[in-house]
TrEMBL record:
PANTHER family named in the record: CHAD DOMAIN-CONTAINING PROTEIN (PTHR39339:SF1), SLR1444 PROTEIN (PTHR39339)
Biological source species: Draconibacterium halophilum
Domain CHAD: 4-287
Gene3D superfamilies: CHAD domain
Lineage: Bacteria, Pseudomonadati, Bacteroidota, Bacteroidia, Marinilabiliales
One family name in Pfam for this protein: CHAD
Protein name: CHAD domain-containing protein
Domain of life from the UniProt record: Bacteria
Length: 310
C-alpha cells in the first residue's frame, strides 16, 4: 500500500481527473487486498474502509450524476460491504475486549473475557477459512474491477463548485440532524446512524483538503475525533447488547456486575464526549456551514491570485 496516497484532490488538479484518480486507487487497492492470504485482518479492514470511502464519494457526486445512478452504484457497494463486514466484526470485538481487560485489571473479569476472546478468534479463523475455500475473494476482486470501469462511465459535466456545495450541505444537514436527534432519542441506532453521516462528511472534506486549502483542515481533525469516538461507542454498544441478550454469557455474577458497571460508565462517558464534540462540530446551520466553506475557499483563491501578481 502506497504511503504517499491520500484521499485528496491535488491543488492544481482538475476535479474530474482528481476524483477518478482517487476512485481508481480505492478500487485497485481493494481488488488487490481482498485476495491477500497474509495479514488478512488488516487487509479486510482496509477493503471495508475503502468501500466506505467510495460510498462517501458517491454521495459527494450525487447531485451531479443523478439519483438513479447514485442508487444503482450505491446498491452494489452496499452489498459488497455486507459481504465483507462479517470478516471484520470478530476483530473489532477482540480489540474492544482487550482494551476493557487493560482498564479493569480484574482477574475474574479477565478470565471471563479471555474465554470470549478465544471464541471470537475461533469464529474469525473459521470465517476466513470458509471465505478462502469458497473462492469468494476472487469474485469480489472481479466485482471491484468491474465497478471501477462503471465509475468511468459517469459524466461530471457540471460546475464542481455548485454540486460539491449542494452535496456538502446535504450530508452536513444529515449529520447535524442525527446529532440533534440524540437529544431526545437516546438509543444505539441513532448513534450508529450519526457515526455513518460523520464519516461521509469527513471523507468529503478530506477529498477537498488540498483543492480547497486553509478552510477545512482543523474541522476535519475535529470530525475525525468525533467519528473515532462514535466508533468506540458503537463497539461498546454491540458488546453490551450481546451480554444483555445473553448471546455472550458471563456465568460468575460478581464478574458480570463489575463488567456491566464498567460498560455503563464507559458508555455514559463516551456519550457525554460525543455530545460535546457534536456541539462543537455542528453549531451552525447547513446553510451557514456551506457559506463559510465557500467563503474561505474564495478567500484562498484570491490570496493565490494576489501572491502571483507580486
Amino acid at each position: 500500500m502506497s504511503e504517499e496516497f491520500s484521499l485528496e484532490i491535488k491543488e492544481r488538479e482538475y476535479f474530474e481527473e482528481g476524483i477518478f484518480r482517487v476512485l481508481d486507487k480505492l478500487h485497485s487497492d481493494s481488488a488487490r487486498f481482498i485476495t491477500q492470504t497474509k495479514r488478512q485482518h488488516f487487509y479486510i479492514h482496509e477493503v471495508r474502509t475503502n468501500i466506505k470511502k467510495i460510498r462517501g464519494l458517491l454521495r459527494l457526486l450525487r447531485h451531479e450524476i443523478g439519483d438513479d445512478n447514485f442508487r444503482e452504484m450505491n446498491k452494489y457497494y452496499r452489498e459488497l460491504a455486507m459481504e465483507v463486514a462479517p470478516l471484520r466484526d470478530d476483530t473489532s470485538q477482540i480489540e474492544l475486549l482487550q482494551e476493557i481487560k487493560s482498564k479493569l485489571h480484574n482477574p475474574a473479569v479477565t478470565k471471563a473475557l479471555d474465554k470470549i476472546i478465544s471464541q471470537h478468534r475461533r469464529n474469525r479463523k473459521n470465517a476466513f477459512e470458509n471465505f478462502k475455500q469458497s473462492g469468494h475473494a476472487e469474485d469480489i476482486k472481479q466485482m471491484m474491477l468491474s465497478l471501477q470501469q462503471m465509475m468511468h462511465s459517469l459524466n461530471f459535466a457540471g460546475d464542481p463548485e455548485s454540486f460539491i456545495l449542494k452535496s456538502l450541505q446535504h450530508i452536513y444537514m444529515q449529520a447535524r440532524g442525527a446529532f440533534e436527534t440524540t437529544e431526545f432519542l437516546n438509543n444505539d441506532e441513532i448513534y450508529h446512524y450519526w457515526r455513518k453521516q460523520v464519516k461521509y462528511l469527513t471523507y468529503h472534506l478530506m477529498l477537498l483538503n488540498k483543492a480547497w486549502p486553509n478552510s477545512i483542515r482543523a474541522y476535519i481533525s475535529d470530525l475525525s475525533i468525533l467519528g473515532s469516538t462514535l466508533g468506540k461507542l458503537h463497539d461498546l454498544n454491540l458488546f453490551h447488547e450481546a451480554i444483555k441478550n445473553k448471546s455472550i454469557l458471563i456465568p460468575e455474577k460478581q464478574s458480570r456486575e463489575k463488567l456491566m458497571r464498567y460498560l455503563y460508565n464507559r458508555r455514559l462517558g463516551l456519550r457525554k464526549r460525543v455530545q460535546a464534540l457534536g456541539e462543537q462540530c455542528f453549531a451552525e446551520s447547513s446553510e451557514a456551514f456551506v457559506l463559510r466553506i465557500f467563503k474561505n475557499w474564495e478567500n484562498s483563491i484570491m490570496q493565490k491570485k494576489t501572491s502571483k501578481a507580486f
